[in-house]
Amino acid sequence: MLFDSHMRILLEASVALVNALTDGQAHGRRYIAPEGAQRVGAVRAALAAGTDLEVGEADRLADTARALRGVFEAAAADRLDDAAAALNALLRESGARPQLDRTPGEPWQVHFHGADDSYAVGWSAGCATGLAMALGGDHAGRLGVCAAPHCDRVYVDTSRNAGRQFCSTTCQNRVKAAAFRARRAGHDA
After folding, report:
1. CA 13, CA 173: separation in Å to the nearest integer?
2. What is the CATH number of domain 5-188?
3. Percent share of the chain, pLDDT over 90
4. pTM score, two decimals?
5. Which parts of the chain register pLDDT below 50?
């Protein structure tokens, strides 16, 4: 809806990395981000990657995820200056720079990293650029942190009415069920 397919991929990757690689709460439970070989597996799952990935690359992406979490939190709290500062730092650190790349047999695509950059640098640059384009394109309100109690997972709101509040239907259902139980308890009292 708001974002083209390439931008959507970058934003979805940002969400997946933050939610997989940062500590916090998820769906009412404490969440501890994986480390070591489990972190490598989490990165592969988040990015749907079949590539060989070393622990150092996964660690770099975990650092990126922590920085991206700060962007989501700042944007959700309407602290856009803080979000922009964090993104600018990540853009500088990753050396993000737009260029057209082409895989044989595929159309040209805009990438935000050099052909010789590492896997982690490429995704870091792409995710930072995707979020920067959302923030700079007047879509900061589409970056959110779950409103459910005991959940701090992030999301990008792609709904038509910009009304999303939850990271998942799991959290939305938890909140609705709790509200129903509270109303019911009020009637029984």
Report:
1. 24
2. 1.10.3300.10
3. 69
4. 0.90
5. 1
